[in-house]
Amino acid sequence: MDNWEDMKIVAEQWSKQGIEFVQQIPPPQLYAAIAVLLLATIWLFSVRLFRRTKSNTVLLSGLSGSGKTMLFYQLRDGSSHQGAVTSMEPNEGTFVLHYENIKKGKVRPVHLVDVPGHSRLRSKLEEYLPRAAAIVFVVDALEFLPNIRAVSEYLYDILTNASVVKNKVPVLLCCNKTDKITAHTKEFIRKQMEKEIEKLRGSRSAVSTADITNDFTLGIEGEVFSFSHCHNKVTVAEASGLTGEIDQVQAFIREHVKP
Fold first, then answer.
1. Span 89-136, pLDDT tens digits
2. Where are the beta strands (DSSP E) in the chain?
């Protein structure tokens, strides 16, 4: 009981001293200190809130005709939605992935955006990159070689984008249409694209040391380019939007948009 009374007396003394100290502080300084404390509290709260609400946006990008829209519908409702349609606007929706509809319990919806692949419409991609949790870059494995330059340039621009680099946005190089016999393998596509991007590194740095198109440079100086050198993680997978063989794409999405 005596200990409790002693602690009470000490607390009252500290409280009294604290009040006397605050009263001695000139009002302008006191108000400034309170304002700083309030702003610091708001900032810390905002940071914690932002960390808790991670993005659920996944972008489907790639050249026109690569099969992005077909993948979009397979992921959304399990349909192939055959037929290539060049859209002037992104095809997007927020939904639980089709294969997860049979799961019990709550599953976090994914905001999936199929970005137009036509060169004149790629500015749309810039609008979505800052909020992307992940990017699925779709490559036509059947018609890969005729388009290798255009495909590599498009991916190069994504991998050197400021938002992608700073946020370390993971990228899945999705080799689509691998159900076809004459389709190239993911390893072949990966190696050829690394070689093509290595050429781009040389040609673009030769044009200007301050390339206004790209915010960052790729690779390690003095070494041949490899996707393992990127600031963000780049993985390679095979898929078929036509037959619904998209397990690797679904797994990639769920790895970066937690259920």
1. 788 999 999 888 776 667 889 999 999 887 777 778 888 999 999 999
2. 57-62, 91-95, 110-114, 132-140, 171-176, 234-238
Pairing of strands 91-95, 110-114: antiparallel
The pTM of the full predicted model, rounded to 2 decimals, is 0.75
Burial 138-176, CB ≥16 within 10 A → b, else e:
bbbbbbbeebbeebbbbbbbbbbbeebbebebbbbbbbb
Can you tell me the distance from the alpha carbon of 88 to that of 121, in angstroms, rounded to the nearest whole number? 7
Structure tokens that stand for 87 in this block: 């859209």
Separation CA 49–CA 41 (nearest Å): 12
- As given in the structure block, the two tokens for residue 218 are 């790729």
Among the listed residues 170, 237, 227, the one whose alpha carbon sits nearest the alpha carbon of residue 195: 227
Is the CB of residue 229 less than 8 Å from the CB of residue 219? yes
**Topology (CATH) of 55-256:** Rossmann fold (3.40.50)
Strand partners, 135: 59, 171
Neighbours of 100 (CB within 10 A): 15
Report whether 237 contacts 157 (CB < 8 A).
Answer: no
Coil, helix or strand at residue 237: strand
Other CB atoms closer than 10 Å to residue 108's CB: what's the count? 13
Distance (Å, rounded) from C-alpha 58 to C-alpha 137? 10
Which residue has tokens 């490559």?
139
Distance CA 124, CA 64 (A): 14
